[in-house]
Amino acid sequence: MPDAPSPLPADRFLNRELSWLDFNSRVLELAEDEDLPLLERVKFLSIFASNLDEFFMVRIAGLKRRQSTGLSVRSPDGLTIREQLARVTERTQDLVHRHASVFDKDVVPRLMEQGIRIVHWSDLGEADAMRLREYFRDQVFPVLTPLAVDPAHPFPYISGLSLNLAVSVRDPETGAPRFARVKVPNNVPRFIPVAAAGAVLPDREAVFLPLEDLIAAHLTSLFPGLDVIDHHLFRVTRNADLEVEEDRDEDLLQALERELAQRRFGPAVRLEVTESIDPQILDVLVHELEISPADVVSVPGLLDLASLMALYDLDRPELKDEPFVPATHPRLSEGETPKSVFATLREGDVLVHHPYDSFATSVQRFIEQAAADPNVLAIKQTLYRTSGDSPIVAALIEAAQAGKQVVVLVEIKARFDEEANISWARSLERAGCHVVYGLVGLKTHCKTALVVRMENGVIRRYCHIGTGNYNPKTARIYEDVGILTADPRVGADLTDLFNTLTGYSRQTTYRSLLVAPHSIRTGLLEKIRREARHAGEGKPAGIRIKVNSLVDEQIIDALYEASAAGVPVELVIRGICTLRPGVPGLSENIRVRSIVGRFLEHSRVINFANAGTPEWWLGSADLMHRNLDRRVEVLLRVNDPAAQRQLQRVFDLDLAPDVRSWQLAGDASWTRTGDRNSQAELLALRGENAG
Predict the structure, then answer these.
(1) pTM to 2 decimals?
(2) Model confidence over 302-337: pLDDT tens digits?
(3) What are phi and psi of 545, to 5 degrees?
(4) Can you say which residues are annotated as belonging to the binding site for ATP?
(5) Which of 445, 464, 534, 625 is flagged as catalytic?
């Protein structure tokens, strides 16, 4: 009998939260990269800050909630919640100082060389100061509300992510000190142009005064009759992770709206302050916000660098990446003339790769043509996130108004898009669409569309399954793939899937799909183990996976076992990865890399060598517990040879040894290697993807 496999070591997993911080550190490395255009570096500084905000609002908030309930469950890497929070605090403080340093000491001087300056009130000349005093009086002062804190005025509610001034004032008659809070309004530009509107400035100069500086310079007008002693900036992050109690007897929409109303009152999980803050003021904030001193993040320089995106929006193309226009997939047009998507798909599948292939002239056009086509009987679609002026939603409304059957599953539990999705759902309902809000206990995350068309007395079904949202704006900056197909098996599968989503069907098996929560985990585990068997039998074996995150312990253990059996495993993981690659006796045959660049690598594609008959799968699921167990996700088997060749080329490029990427080592360290820009190469080759 063969020897039983050795038990896997207890320390085989990396920490999820620290791995996420490593990902955001890679974003920060791009901000530090002197080879990038200057405003692109500013953009990455902003993205880093926004990412960190969401990390605290969701992940750290979740850990703190579990800690407050007394749960002592250890993470898969063996750390207690207390230990995780301590390590996150230490790592975050390091990253915040590095973030501030690259902005203050490197980017700001370079911006000044380009005529872009952020100044303080004391730097202004008299003419500029006079003009900004008028601006304050007319545009800012009316929306400010100074809130006193004393026995008659309790400490005010501080909204999440708002910028605030803690102001110390004194009564000149009694000498009694007072404390007040002034919120920096978020409906006024954070960076105020110093020059008068229409002024012609030399060398394309752009000078900005932070809004908080303008307010601070006029505090005496907010507290007349009092002496303003000092002021300090602070910012609070609150728990924004909704916990909707889903009850089959309660309207899900009403339950979610109730929770949304409570989100703004979530407990504080982080307090950001300037390094110069008065210790007594800090003590007041810590006490009143009921926050631990360990949750205070001291920031050198400006708070809330997420607002730097306003500088990125400046009209300075020479300081940005060269603009590009997404190409129409060559099979979807003849020269400048659009082709019928339906006629094209009858000839074979089309794999679209965004943003290199235009979303507007492929997926969006598919829905728009379906809405306008008198032979189309029905359109069924899932919507997880879309844009504020969504042409997809407009087309669905047009289709319903034209008398077509339109079914839309709007996932109203999509984090931070809940309110927008509720609004879309109601607009769709008013237009006559059949709107479904998802399944109790599950988020519907799959990206699927089904068009039913009558052709010469015969029903034919056309489909789209992708890795990205039906959002034309993010489709220009997110890297995603999708299949447009008229394959009858896929059409039958999506028909069954929509019947499950809208009715009481309990279908769990499909022809060309793996569907979570029932079959993606089991299907992938079986295929990983099949590769191990093939390796043992001397047959071609190999696994290549590209996803945003790899966290699921069962999948990771199966990959370790495949590696031990001799299967080469190549992983492209943009974000979180808790697998340890290259560890002797555990994962010698596994290598992991991350690509972070101009576009957000967002596609999920899996390839199995399968003894010489390769299998390709694409879909919406990352390899995380939530995707495999608590969401409706879809993986589609890609059968079209041209589409397979296109995915093969993308994988070969992403995994080329000289491509610019970060390599993960077994000790959790990431090393940047290579100088070949895979995204730039794909941009150069866009349009040459017809196979």
Answers:
(1) 0.92
(2) 999 999 999 999 999 999 999 999 999 999 988 778
(3) -135, 135
(4) 51, 478, 574, 602
(5) 445
